[in-house]
Amino acid sequence: MPDTPLGAHAEALRLFGERVRAVGADQWRAPTPCTLWNVRQLVGHVTAEQLWVEPLVTDGRSAGELGDAFSGDVLGEDPAGAWDRASAAAHTALAAPGALERTVGLSYGPVPGSEYCAQLTVDCAVHAWDLSRAIGADERLPDDLVAFCAREVAPHAAELAASGMFAPPLQAPPGASAQTRLLALMGRLD
């Protein structure tokens, strides 16, 4: 079910994967709405996020122990294949019995596995929009995924912006769609 953490994660992975496979050979260096990243760097970031899941959730290691294990180019010569392998392993790790109840040692401290799963989902979904915009693909996110992400982000938008890792929330125009409101919370306007 898309409104559960695992269902939403699967939907975000599916959507992002579709966009990765739609990247044209001449689009890997194209700019994205994330001004620090081009298309390849954005795909590398989201792929690396999925690579963290198995050691953190399955092996019980902490971000501190792993250090910079997934920095640099994680895509190699086959970006779509790298994405497929990383996303499949991440979802398998999160779907394992008890995984969402485990404590996960992130860089800023321990969090429940369900919260970590939700964070990954939001990151993947919003970056699917970024990637769509960068390559000229359909930018619409599934309504159920937007609703899940909005529920996760809304209570923490100010904290996310204060972290310096996310753009400050923007004011969505009156009558904006749920997707536009979500993107505004994440510092983007469509």
Task: Please name the defining characteristics of this protein.
globular; Four Helix Bundle (Hemerythrin (Met), subunit A); 8 helices; 4% strand; two-stranded antiparallel ribbon; mainly alpha
Describe this structure in words.
The protein is mainly α. The chain has a single domain (5-140), classed as Four Helix Bundle (Hemerythrin (Met), subunit A). It is 56% helix and 4% strand. The protein has helices at residues 5-22, 39-58, 63-66, 79-95, 113-135, 143-153, 157-162, 178-185; strands spanning 103-106, 109-112. It has a two-stranded antiparallel sheet. Strand 1 and strand 2 (109-112) form a beta hairpin. Helix 1 packs antiparallel against helix 4 (79-95), helix 1 (5-22) runs parallel beside helix 5 (113-135) and helix 6 packs parallel to helix 8. The longest helix has 23 residues, at 113-135. The radius of gyration is 16 Å and the shape is globular.
Rounded to an integer in angstroms, the radius of gyration calculated over CA atoms is 16 Å
Structural class: mainly alpha
Looking at the structure, what is the overall shape?
Answer: globular
Q: What is the annotated CATH architecture?
A: Up-down Bundle
CATH topology: Four Helix Bundle (Hemerythrin (Met), subunit A)
Indicate the low-confidence ranges by residue numbers.
none
Overall structural domain count: 1
Q: Order of SSEs, N→C?
A: HHHHEEHHHH
Strand order of the largest sheet: 1-2
E-strand count: 2
Strand content: under 5%
Number of helices: 8
Biggest pleated sheet: 2 strands, antiparallel
